[in-house]
Design goal:
binds guanosine-5',3'-tetraphosphate, Ribosome biogenesis GTPase A, Conserved Hypothetical Protein Ylqf, Chain: A, domain 2, 10 helices, nucleotide-binding, GTPase_MTG1, about 40% helix, GTP-binding
Amino acid sequence: MTIQWFPGHMAKAIRLIKESLNQVDVVIELVDARIPESSRNPVLDETVTDQPRVLVLMKPDMADPNVTKQWLQHYRDLGQTALTIDAKKNIGISELIAAVTELAEPKMEKLRKKGIQHRSVRAMIVGIPNVGKSTLINRLVGKNQATTGNKPGVTRKNQWLKVGKKLELLDTPGILWPKFEDQTVGLRLAATGAIKDERLDFSDVVLYLIRYMKEYYPKSLLERYKLQEEPEHDVGWFEEIGRKRGCLMGGGDIDFDATAELILREYRSEKLGRISLERPEQ
Ligand code: G4P
C-alpha cells in the first residue's frame, strides 16, 4: 500500500502557520502520545525558528504509560519542553499553562522593559488532523467563552480566546500535515486514525499492527482473542482471529477485510490495551 499526501496541502498549511506566527509568543505543538515522532512534521522545525515551543503528547490515556515516560525523558534530554495532556479527562492543563508562561517569560520581560506592562502571553496550537486541537482549545478556554474580538495587527479571520487572565490563544489552530515519505510512518498514522479511512487498505495497516504487537505486546493479542498460542505466520493471526470472531465468508473462508476492520476498530477503541506504536530507541 502506498499512502501519500499532496505537497500542495502541506505548502498551504505551512503558509497559514507562518502568517500567524509573528503574532504569537509561544507555539504549542500537539502530537499523538502513541506515535510522537510519526505524528510530528519536521517542517515545523524550519518554520518555527523564533518562538519557543512546548511539545504536548496528547491522548496519553491510549498510550503505553511506560513508553510515554521514555518519550518525555527523551524530549527533555534533548532540551525540549514536553508534557502530556489527557484532554478527555482534563488532566495536564495547568501544567501546560505554567509551561507556556515560563517559556514566554524572556519575551514578556523585554516587553516590560519597553514599558508594555500588562500584555497577555499569546500562543497558538498546531498539530496534525485529529490529534486533539479543538478538544484542547475547548478545555483551555471553557465552554462559554466569548471571543475577545479582533485586535489591531491581527488578520481578520483570527481571534484571540482568553485562557485565564494572562494567556490568550489564537482561535484557529495550525493544521499540519503528517509527513510520510517513510511508509512505516504512514502505517502508524493510519493505525491511530490520523489518516482518513477511505484512503486505507485495512489489511496492510493491521498486518503492521499485528507485527508490532507480536514483538512488544504479544499477550494483549492472545488474551483479547483468546488464542492458546501465537500463530506461526502473520496471516495465521488473521485466520485465527477471524475464525474466533466469526468473520467468515460463504463457504466458511475467513473474511480478511472484515477481520482487519475488526482488529483496527478494537485497537483504536483501546480494547487491545494501551498500545504505543513507536519507541524512542527506534
Ligand atoms: P483536531 O481538532 O486536532 O482535528 O482533533 P479533535 O479535537 O477533533 O479530536 C479528535 C478526537 O480525539 C476526538 O474524538 C477527541 O475526543 C479525541 N481526543 C482528544 N484529546 C484526547 C485525549 O487526550 N484522549 C483521548 N482518548 N481522546 C482525545 P472523536 O472520536 O472524534 O470524538 P468524541 O470521542 O469526542 O465524540
